[in-house]
Each structure stands twice: as C-alpha cells, then as structure tokens.
C-alpha cells in the first residue's frame, strides 16, 4: 500500500489580500508619478506661452509708443492718457502716414485698435477702427494701473514718480506699461509680471 502525500498548499485569503494591496499601491504610485509629471509639463508649457505672449505684447506697445508723432492732420501725438487706455498717433506700418492707435484693457484682454487716415482732407473715422487682441489673461488688480506716464523731469531714480491722473497729455515724455498675466491661477505657481518704459522720441526735450 503506497501512501502518497502531495503538498497542494496555495495562497491563503490573507496572503492574497496582502498581494493585491501591494499591487494596488504600486499601480497607484506609478499613476501618481505619471500624473504629477504630466501636470508639471503642463505648467511649464503654460508659463512659456505666457512669457512669450507677454514679451510680444510689450515689444509691440513699446515700438508703437516710441514712434508717436503728430497726426497726419497735425493733431498732438497723444490723444488721451488713462490708467487702462492710451490713445496716440504713430506710423506703425511705416508708410509715412500716422495711424491713430488705441491700447486698452477689456475684461482680461489687452487690445490694440488702429484707425488709418482716410478721405480728402484726412479724417480718422472711429467706424474704421480695426481691433485685435495683443495679450490675454491680464490679471491686473483694479488698484494697479496698466499705463503710467512721466514728464521731462523723470530721472529713473526711486524718487521719480508717475504723473497723477488726470494726466495732461502735453506733459508726457515717457510711458510705462505694467502687465500681470496669469493664464490659470490653479495651475500657474505665480503670475507673470511684465513692465517696461519707453521715451517718446518725437517729444524729447533735447
């Protein structure tokens, strides 16, 4: 008589539960790492887009303001100088005629409006204004102006202050733009701050 004893032991229920738990933790860790990596790349991409758009907007603004000049009908270079809107004349397309240029904030977008002189004699009809978005996701607080203005006494020192509103346009010699841009406050770690000044060449005192 042969007595054959086979060892047919398998996983106990407790061992199976432990194995499944460890496997679940491993999978969860892998997914978490993947999601964090994806979010980090998304944030970096958003920051690069924001920086690129902010720099382009400021460069365009500075180039337009720097060339501000008397209009094609002899009007003073600066029409109005507000905290979130500035209107001036400038030959932005370099065709010898000065366009009427308007930069303004509406909601969270910085816009640029252009009116070309038309007719005989020249006029600047507001109905022909062409408006395009320059920068999106503007997050300037209501207490922070977008545009600042300085007169001929500006030296660049910490004691040099901007002109108070309402600004007398004939006193303006230098214009500053300050933008706070934040595409998504839930993704971006910090908003982008962009600011720069430019002197109006055709109004220089010397």
Q: Please, what is the average pLDDT?
A: 85
Number of helices: 1
Contiguous low-pLDDT stretches (5 residues minimum) are none
Structure classification: alpha+beta
Largest sheet: 5 strands, antiparallel
N- and C-termini, Cα separation: 122 Å
Tell me what you see in this structure.
This protein is of the alpha+beta class and 206 residues long. The protein has one domain (41-203). The chain is built from 1 helix and 8 strands. It has one helix at 13-66; strands at residues 78-81, 85-90, 99-106, 109-115, 130-135, 147-150, 174-181, 192-199.
Task: Pick out its properties.
single chain; 206 residues; alpha+beta; 5-stranded antiparallel sheet; 3-stranded antiparallel sheet; 26% helix
Can you summarize this structure?
Helix content is 26%, strand content 25%. It is built from 1 helix and 8 strands; from the N terminus they run H-E-E-E-E-E-E-E-E. The strands form 2 sheets. A 5-stranded antiparallel beta sheet has the order 1-2-3-4-5, with helices on one face. Strands 6-7-8 form a 3-stranded antiparallel beta sheet, covered by helices on one side.
Lay out the secondary structure.
Elements: H1 13-66, E1 78-81, E2 85-90, E3 99-106, E4 109-115, E5 130-135, E6 147-150, E7 174-181, E8 192-199
Antiparallel strand pairs: 1-2, 2-3, 3-4, 4-5, 6-7, 7-8
